[in-house]
Design goal:
By secondary structure, the chain is an alpha+beta fold. The protein has three helices and two strands; from the N terminus they run H-E-E-H-H. Strands 1-2 form a two-stranded antiparallel sheet.
Amino acid sequence: MIFEDVLLTLSKRLKREMKVWADLEHSNVVPFLGWTFCLDDDGVIEASLISAWCEGGDARRYLKRHPDADRRCMVCPKPLHPH
């Protein structure tokens, strides 16, 4: 019963993440293409969300190679103005 509850919770979270990402349209967000899952060697389910290949790699790798990068511009290229 506990496993089923955890699986249901994870499934709902994954669906929510996919919906949010699929609905995003921004120049700094790569399009969501799909998802997949598999069992690893220990029988653990691994889910993956799929996007287009980015030549520069993921954000974590980019920031390791460019430690002085302005992280705020990676998320929001325009200044935010208070309402």
